[in-house]
Amino acid sequence: MALAAGQDNLCPNQTTSLTATGCNGEISWAGYTGTEAVRTNLGPGTYTVYCTTDCNNPTTKSYIIGGLQGATQVKLEAVGNVTSVCPGGGTTIHADGCSGSDLQWRDHPEWATEPTHPVGVGSYTVICSQTCGTSTAIINITQKDASTQVSLGADESSVCPGGETTIHATNCTGGTLSWRDHGDWGSNANPTVGVGSYTVTCSQTCGTSTTSIDITQKDASTQVSLGADESSVCPGGETTIHATNCTGGTLSWRDHGDWGSNANPTVGVGSYTVTCSQTCGTST
After folding, report:
1. How many structural domains compose the chain?
2. So which domain of life are we looking at (predicted)?
């Protein structure tokens, strides 16, 4: 007598049949009341059949149907949990929970069954094909924002002696500002400064950029001077007065607005006052 199964090993929730052959007598089964030679819907276990002939000398045969482990869920992770990289950067992904021979990578057949690979930005899919099923895992590696070039501007690029202006560091989104030779400014993007050279650095996740600006000094204001060809004239006479030392400034005459910025008016007897208005001050 012989026993044969449709499948020797079963995955979870699978069943098979078991057939007894070569019995010329009555068939019976251990733990089962039926007498049929073919049993169906059997799970993993040990099955024993008896064949009893007229001589009442039963023959016994046992058969073991094995049970397989269910398919495992493959996992796909980035080493160090680095799932976002800088432009041109990379990370390493690793598939876990699947024996090597069962592993394959979608769109990357050259990776074969290796579980670990260095990768760049993109979407990656691993497939684990096992006897009792297939599982899939996906990981997306995204790109961080590229670093930007920090910019440095000023309300005024040139100031009067002793004067100040405000400089502005911009285009450092998500980064940290630092100032060369001015650590006390911290990450202040808008410090007030005097004449000098200023350098700012923007440190971002994907890089560092630096820029500088020079604040120069304007010419100091000068003391306007007023002279005359003659300081005394005859009755009814005239002379010419001369306003000097007002380079780059604008002249104005008290009580003589009609003279405009004329530096050399012709005058008679009287008192004359001139004002020089320059960028960095006024003198009279």
Report:
1. 4
2. Bacteria
Q: pLDDT tens digits for the chain (284 residues)?
A: 899 999 999 999 999 999 999 998 999 999 999 999 999 999 999 999 999 988 778 899 999 999 998 888 999 999 999 999 999 999 999 999 987 678 999 999 999 899 999 999 999 999 999 989 999 999 999 999 999 999 999 999 999 999 999 999 999 999 999 999 999 999 999 999 999 999 999 999 999 999 999 999 999 999 999 999 999 999 999 999 999 999 989 999 999 999 999 999 999 999 999 999 999 999 99
Give yes or no: residues 58 and 81 share one domain.
no
Number of neighbouring beta carbons within 10 Å of residue 63: 18
Cα radius of gyration rounded to whole Å, the chain: 49
Per-residue tokens: 201? 């650095």
Residue with tokens 């021979």: 101
Cα distances from 258 to residues 62, 242, 244, 253, 266, in angstroms, run 131, 16, 19, 8, 13
Mark which of 84, 109, 143 sits at the end of a domain: 143
- Counting DSSP H helices and E strands in the chain, the numbers are 0, 27
Cβ-based neighbours of 232, under 8 Å, separated by 6 or more? none
Report residue 85 CA to chain centroid gap. Answer: 7
CA distance 57 to 253: 145
Q: Are 146 and 208 in contact (CB under 8 A)?
A: no
Give buried/exposed letters for 2-19 (b at 16+ CB in 10 A, else e). Answer: ebebeeeebbeeeebebb
State the amino acid at position 14 in one-letter form: Q
Residues 61 and 18 occupy one common structural domain: yes
Q: Model pTM?
A: 0.67
